[in-house]
């Protein structure tokens, strides 16, 4: 590809629109327009120069802002569709998705489910959309960064006439004492924090060039964020486990490879109470009834010493106590434990008196730990109780045999054998909540219900997420970039002497109002006339649109 | 304190209304229009606006003192705060561009937003555990500020279209512009309907069979045109519903929507009868002196200023809070997704602005769509699609 040599002698890369040195129009198709297109300073971009190989084609596809916008819009619409019905992870775990969508939402729900919208955000095509946006950001940025860098670095002070004339802001003054004035103007410009360069009596004043890098910085932030989000799938970066823990219990923390243990001392639930809170809250409490105030688990964290040996009690060293509340997780060594759920008053122990049915006399109390029942309870003096069978969650199965639904003691039932000096062979009794059966004939003794003990259970989410810092860094870089690009702008003012006249032209990538205000301040008390906004002139002649109206970068 | 707080809000409300009339007066004032910058009317208008803003700030602080937390924790508080930020954003933009006409359109929108907010339960309520976090308050206030600044581009877009759309013949543009007007009138319709019945202290209790096929109770505060599933009216002398809907539809909300729509149509009909032309055509003379390029730039700049603030508040701070309260920074709940949609939308807007042909009228239409998305997230997502954020 041949380079293009400008009349001023500068050699430009193929595809350049405005000469990098003097700003003369090189691209013939542009020379008839009233205003020059200042995007990317009229420099050559790879995507506009090469279009041969398949790589070029892919490159060109992704580097187009139009494609980028389409990708964004498609993602936006798809995301919206995903909120019409709840996503699968929000539906009750007791029903299958297949049934749920159909039953709750009829044919629409069925369609929604079959099109895969119930799991939209982790569907392959949604992920491909996001990945394409990432790709597009990356390629578009690289495509523009280098040429833009070249031309912004290489700005010359003296520009070609045609370049000045075709700036949106342009004016000619015919003054008498131009020498003196230019210096004064240069001073004014510096006072308004413009960087002023003087060359052969021509001025280039510039401000806020760094803001041009804003989009590139924010795009890097986005890429970093997306990379961080991808790293989640690398083993070891991310842990998400649930731990149900009872008061008084010590358990290995899942996801920590047996390194850490947690014991729960207490779970606390507090609600706002009418007479204890400030009167300002009375109306709300009365209207809404119970409003939760606090969910809290008081826990102690332990670290295991040495290696885990199966079947052996681990040796634990206490690390710290913590009160886990919502918004106040326990954090240690990249792990965090969050309060997420609870269950109050779960059955924990049941107590019985061994009682003589006739006399009502009792012979000792047994306490059955429903999580760790003993095979035998010795009551001394010849009295004892043997636990033959235990059904934590009792039901009769299809064959009418007693069985258990789960290991959780929701409905405990027992088969006991009672031994007394009177009945040394033992009597069998079936005991469940509110009922006693004597399957092997009438007994002399019974186990009379003597109370229960309950415990609260906390559910804690155990989380480790090593990607957070990367995501956070991405977020910060993004913010720096958008602020840089949005709150500053790149303003340039060219002032040149041509045949005794003073030519003034100006360009900004955004915020023309601010640029005009700057110019007005600068030419105050000088004989320079205010340059015109050439776009505005076009407008005033009724609807007439100037086709390269956009002179934004 | 609570009483003081609501009085201050009333005062702010009235002052915003007064300021609107002064701003309108300032653009009618031909004499003053000639000389550049502010005229007398505009000067008074902006001071009244500032006074209103300070009064609303007073409401905010007093309510904060009364409840012990930043009052942004339910739909009433949050929406009111959004109204306040809208005025704040307007004040900032006004001091940059000195355009009274922006006040004529922004302040009524703010007034409408605040009036709308007041239709939701207003009692001061204690915070549930998930909401007890400073990050939540930082997130909500910053997000609202960002949305409010973005919404200024809606006002600018509206002004642009009012001037640029040719009202002498009917077209798609006149239709959609008028539809926007109708939407604003409908909001007013809702406020009026709700206010009238609340002044009459209308209450009708129903029992009905809910989605889980259990019996439940519900109280309507406006007459039930749409009754709940197998609803039985318990209160005497109240209107029986015209239709009853299946259990999966929220009858009370649908009823409210229908009433608002009804109120909107009646109100709009009356306005049209009086004006004898489209509202937007009637408003056109008000904007005949505006400089389209300047208004276009105001719209673009408010997006530029609002976008970073919105990103910070609605995405970054939101993620920090979500990580602490819900154990993960992102959970795809509808409110979050709509924040993402808003963000993507304005990102698309900024990119489109870089190409030719998207300045001016197209930009103005985009600004309208953006505002619809913001309002949808602010209100509809809470009412229609309840997520974790389910306020109220
Ligand atoms: C959601 C994702 C994106 C966000 C949040 C984003 C953000 C931004 C922002 C804020 C700007 C500055 C705009 C202005 O100053 O008016 C910008 C510029 C730009 N963006 Fe993006 N962008 C995203 C995706 C993309 C994609 C997919 C492309 C691919 C074509 C792209 C290409 C560009 C280009 C070429 C610029 C102009 C650079 C310059 O002025 O030198 N962006 N972007």
Automatic annotation (TrEMBL), chain A:
It is found in: Membrane. GO terms for cellular component: membrane. InterPro entries: Cyt_c_bgen_Ccs1/CcsB/ResB, ResB-like_domain. The keyword Ubl conjugation does not apply. It comes from the Bacteria. GO terms for biological process: cytochrome complex assembly. The keyword S-adenosyl-L-methionine does not apply. It is a multi-pass membrane protein. Residues 534-553 are annotated as: Disordered. The chain crosses the membrane at residues 67-85, 124-146, 216-234, 466-488. Residues 65-519 form the ResB-like domain. Keywords: Cytochrome c-type biogenesis, Membrane, Transmembrane, Transmembrane helix. This is Cytochrome C biogenesis protein. The lineage of its organism: Bacteria, Bacillati, Bacillota, Bacilli, Bacillales.
TrEMBL record, chain B:
The chain crosses the membrane at residues 6-24, 44-66, 78-97, 102-120, 140-162, 174-197, 257-275, 303-324, 336-352, 364-388. Residues 73-192, 261-389 form the Cytochrome c assembly protein domain. Keywords: Cytochrome c-type biogenesis, Membrane, Transmembrane, Transmembrane helix. The keyword Transmembrane applies. This is C-type cytochrome biogenesis protein CcsB. NCBIfam families: cytochr_II_ccsB. One of its GO terms (biological process) is cytochrome complex assembly. It is a multi-pass membrane protein. GO terms for cellular component: plasma membrane. It comes from the Bacteria. GO terms for molecular function: heme binding. The keyword Transmembrane applies. It is found in: Membrane. It comes from Peribacillus glennii. Its main location: membrane. InterPro entries: Cyt_c_assembly (IPR002541), Cyt_c_biogenesis_CcsA (IPR017562), Cyt_c_biogenesis_CcsA/CcmC (IPR045062).
């Amino acid at each position: 590809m041949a380079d293009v040599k400008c009349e001023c002698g500068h050699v430009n890369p193929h595809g350049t629109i405005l000469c990098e040195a003097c700003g003369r129009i090189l691209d013939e198709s542009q020379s008839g327009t009233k205003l020059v297109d200042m995007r990317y300073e009229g420099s050559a971009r790879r995507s506009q120069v090469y279009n041969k190989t398949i790589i070029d084609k892919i490159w060109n596809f992704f580097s187009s802002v139009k494609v980028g916008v389409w990708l964004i819009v498609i993602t936006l619409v798809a995301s919206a569709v995903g909120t019409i019905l709840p996503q699968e992870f929000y539906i009750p775990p007791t029903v299958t998705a297949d049934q749920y969508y159909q039953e709750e939402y009829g044919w629409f729900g069925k369609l929604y489910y079959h099109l895969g919208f119930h799991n939209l955000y982790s569907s392959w095509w949604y992920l491909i959309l996001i990945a394409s946006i990432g790709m597009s950001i990356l390629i578009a940025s690289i495509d523009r960064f280098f040429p833009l860098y070249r031309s912004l670095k290489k700005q010359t002070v003296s520009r070609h006439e045609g370049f000045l004339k075709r700036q949106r802001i342009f004016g000619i003054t015919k003054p008498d004492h131009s020498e003196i004035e230019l210096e004064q103007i240069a001073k004014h410009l510096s006072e308004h924090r413009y960087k002023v360069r003087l060359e052969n009596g021509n001025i280039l004043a510039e401000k806020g060039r760094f803001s041009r890098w804003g989009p590139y910085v924010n795009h890097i932030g986005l890429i970093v964020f997306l990379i961080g989000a991808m790293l989640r799938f690398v083993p070891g970066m991310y842990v998400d486990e649930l731990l149900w823990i009872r008061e008084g219990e010590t358990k290995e923390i899942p996801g920590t490879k047996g390194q850490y243990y947690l014991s729960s001392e207490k779970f606390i639930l507090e609600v706002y109470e009418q007479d204890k809170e400030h009167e300002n809250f009375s109306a709300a409490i009365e209207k809404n009834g119970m409003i939760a105030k606090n969910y809290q688990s008081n826990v102690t964290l332990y670290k295991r010493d040495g290696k885990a040996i199966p079947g052996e009690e681990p040796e634990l060293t206490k690390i710290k106590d913590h009160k886990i509340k919502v918004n106040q997780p326990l954090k240690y060594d990249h792990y965090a434990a969050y309060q997420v759920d609870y269950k109050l008053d779960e059955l924990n122990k049941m107590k019985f008196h061994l009682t003589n049915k006739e006399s009502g006399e009792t012979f000792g109390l047994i306490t059955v730990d429903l999580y760790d029942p003993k095979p035998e309870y010795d009551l001394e003096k010849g009295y004892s109780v043997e636990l033959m069978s235990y059904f934590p969650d009792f039901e009769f199965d299809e064959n009418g045999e007693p069985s258990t639904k789960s290991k959780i003691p929701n409905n405990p039932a027992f088969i006991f054998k009672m031994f007394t000096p009177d009945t040394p062979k033992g009597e069998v009794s079936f005991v469940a909540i509110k009922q006693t059966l004597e399957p092997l004939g009438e007994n002399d003794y019974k186990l009379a219900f003597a109370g229960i003990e309950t415990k609260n259970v906390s559910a804690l989410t155990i989380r480790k997420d090593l990607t957070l810092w990367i995501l956070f860094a991405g977020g910060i870089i993004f913010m720096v970039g958008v602020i840089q690009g949005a709150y500053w702008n790149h303003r340039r003012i060219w002032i040149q002497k041509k045949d005794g006249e003073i030519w003034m032209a100006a360009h900004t990538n955004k915020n023309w109002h601010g640029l005009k205000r700057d110019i007005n301040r600068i030419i105050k008390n000088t004989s320079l006339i205010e340059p015109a906004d050439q776009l505005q002139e076009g407008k005033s002649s009724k609807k007439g649109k100037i086709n390269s109206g956009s002179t934004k970068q | 304190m609570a009483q003081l707080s609501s009085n201050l809000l009333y005062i702010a409300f009235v002052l915003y209304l007064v300021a609107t009339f002064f701003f309108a007066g300032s653009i009618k004032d031909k004499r003053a229009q000639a000389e550049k910058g502010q005229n007398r009317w505009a000067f008074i208008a902006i001071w009244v606006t500032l006074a209103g803003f300070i009064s609303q700030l007073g409401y905010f602080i007093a309510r904060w003192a009364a409840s012990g937390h930043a009052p942004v924790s339910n739909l009433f508080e949050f929406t009111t705060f959004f109204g306040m930020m809208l005025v704040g954003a307007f004040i900032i933009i006004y001091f940059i561009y000195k355009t009274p006409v922006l006040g004529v359109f922004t302040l009524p929108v703010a007034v409408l937003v605040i009036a709308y907010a007041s239709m939701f339960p207003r009692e001061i309520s204690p915070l549930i555990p998930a909401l007890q976090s400073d990050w939540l308050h930082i997130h909500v206030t910053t997000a609202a500020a960002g949305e409010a600044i973005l919404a200024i581009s809606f006002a600018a877009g509206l002004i642009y279209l009012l001037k640029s759309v040719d009202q002498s013949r009917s077209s798609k543009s006149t239709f959609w512009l008028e539809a926007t007007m109708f939407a604003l009138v409908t909001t007013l319709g809702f406020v009026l309907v709700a206010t009238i019945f609340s002044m009459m202290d209308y209450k009708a209790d129903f029992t009905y069979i809910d989605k889980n096929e259990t019996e439940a109770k519900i109280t309507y505060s406006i007459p039930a045109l749409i009754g709940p599933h197998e609803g039985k009216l318990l209160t005497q002398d109240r209107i029986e519903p015209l239709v009853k809907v299946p259990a999966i539809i929220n009858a009370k909300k649908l009823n409210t929507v229908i009433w608002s729509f009804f109120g909107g149509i009646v109100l709009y009909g009356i306005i049209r009868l009086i004006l004898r032309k489209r509202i937007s055509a009637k408003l056109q003379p008000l904007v005949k002196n505006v400089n389209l390029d300047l208004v276009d730039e105001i719209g673009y700049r408010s997006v530029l200023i609002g976008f970073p603030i919105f990103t910070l508040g609605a995405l970054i701070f939101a993620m920090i809070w979500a990580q602490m309260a819900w154990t993960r920074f992102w959970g795809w709940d509808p409110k979050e997704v709509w924040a993402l949609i808003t963000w993507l939308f304005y990102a698309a807007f900024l990119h489109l602005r870089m190409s030719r042909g998207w300045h001016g009228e197209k930009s103005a239409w985009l600004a309208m769509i953006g505002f619809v998305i913001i309002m949808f997230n602010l209100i509809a997502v809470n009412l229609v699609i309840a997520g974790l954020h389910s306020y109220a």
